[in-house]
Amino acid sequence: KPYIPKIVEVNYIEGSHDQKWSSRDFPWTIKLEANNKKVFGNHSFRPNQREIINATMSGCDVFVLMPTGGGKSLTYQLPALICPGITLVISPLVSLIQDQIMHLLQANIPAAYLSANMDWPEQQEILRELTSDYCKYKLLYVTPEKVARSDVLLRHLDSLNTRDLLARIVIDEAHCVSQWGHDFRPDYQGLGILKQKYPKTPVLALTATATASVKEDVVQALGLVNCIIFRQSFNRPNLWFSVIPKTKKCVEDIDKFIKENHFDECGIIYCLSRMDCEKVAEKLQEYGHKAAFYHGNMDPAQRASTQKQWSKDEINIICATVAFGMGINKLDVRFVIHHSLPKSIEGYHQECGRAGRDGQRSSCILYYSYSDYIRVKHMISQGVVEQSPSVSGYNRFNNSGRILETNTENLYRMVSYCENDVDCRRFLQLLHFGEKFDSANCQKTCDNCCTVNSFVEKDITNIAKQLVELVKSTGQQYSSSHILEVYRGSLSQFVKRHRHETLSLHGAGKHLAKGEASRVLHHLVTEEFLVEEVKKSDIYGSVSSVLKVNESKVQNLCLGGHTITLRFPSSAKATKLSKSGATPAKGSLTSGRLSPPRVDTPAQSNSNVDLNLSAK
Ligand code: ADP
Ligand code: MG
Ligand code: ZN
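Above: the input record for the complex with adenosine-5'-diphosphate. Below: its predicted structure, written as tokens.
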């Protein structure tokens, strides 16, 4: 029976700006600081840790957005230690849980976990302990399945609750709640039952992934009330980003890159399929690297042993599917290479986030080709893409049209990231997380900031007007990728089904390269002419993103009282391209850059037509 969450009014408070949570005058401050030093061996708190702890210990529901490695665990383990009662922690993976418990026991903090694949007597012993008034455990870890499937567990939680011993409920990796995130896991959606049953127990939800829509989804599904949100910048200054055109010689390029930049250092190469992992690993071995592969088709012992060898530096390079990585605790990963296109920007950001956790400079290289886009798209539609292990059971749901649509939209955004050869990579990634990043702060640590030296301002007012008009005339109910398709004259099935090919603006932007059109559209969103609205599509509170027009801002534009300009690169390559008038072949290099391939549309164009003149 599916659990249907109640729709609740949610007030967000951005806690990160509220000074009161930084106070050192809470009744628990002294104990907090002492235990942070004595038990956890930390000299101080990291950004937001003190604030989060103060908010959750004050009894508020708290939602934490903190990058991987930021130190989320401490924000519940420390309160668990100094509060009476037990903290319930929901975590997606048994291997993650075991790792955490090992660390807790080493620090002499009593903790246990329950999972379905444990012996029953062992489970019973832990449950028995929970019924004791002198229960020794400070933390109890469970998987979401356990909450969804085990009445015995719920009865024990009831009992703890009536005895006022249920101190706090922690939802780790909370983005798994959301179908909009990259790690959707159905059992997480049922966790809303906890807030319903135990409304007085504070909930602490933690994630390193949150777009506005994921945040919305999580808060909704968990039923958080007057939730305080702590977010901090997701920028990782020590990671260097680039996107490189993928050729047939990709593995040779990787070999060369590693030898020149990270010889004998440790890294991860993400591949799309299991076969790719094995092939890439084999080739790298031939080139003399200590490489191994890792994917979901290996038996668990083999996987564990490979991971261990890598942790101990017996292997430098691991060629893996996204099954590898969640919860790995290696600090000196010097490079993360994507051998093929990641499936979403969130996923990409998280995978890259495994590099450089010690703060040292590290490289994130993505090899992009248009044919990989087609391949991933096909795999998504067939439901055969390997997911990170938090989403076992995912494929059962994969045939649902809505999830397919979400996945396709996520992939589409990833493609547009790769094809953008103008804007700062950090700016683009962080924009996706709702964070405005000033490209000047990149300090030339991404490929685009390094190669694009000079810009020309171009007038895009006409294009802007057309796009706004198109959003209006299609009823403000489509995603940005769909609007772009129509604007550039796509004749896809979806466009036809909605009879968009009959619109006068269908194809009005066919003279624009895809990357250009999508940059203009993005710009309209960041300048708030258009709003990307999160739409709840059904009772489960699942969401999709839809473009709407911001009337007040647009009025001025349509009356002609406003010009919009956007920077375009005025590099040597641009002039060369427009002079020759030729459409470069897919994947060809121009001044070391990838020419933007065309996606899903018959519209062919030179990429540097004068925007202002050619717009109608
Ligand atoms: P996250 O869950 O946010 O990815 P973790 O909680 O696993 O991060 O913490 C990452 C690492 O940072 C751990 O090794 C942890 O011991 C360390 N750490 C956390 N807080 C502090 C602190 N205040 N001072 C020093 N190290 C810390
Ligand atoms: Mg964590
Ligand atoms: Zn940059």
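Notes for the reader.
The two ends are 54 Å apart (CA to CA).
Confidence is low (pLDDT under 50) at residues 1-10, 389-399, 537-543, 572-616.
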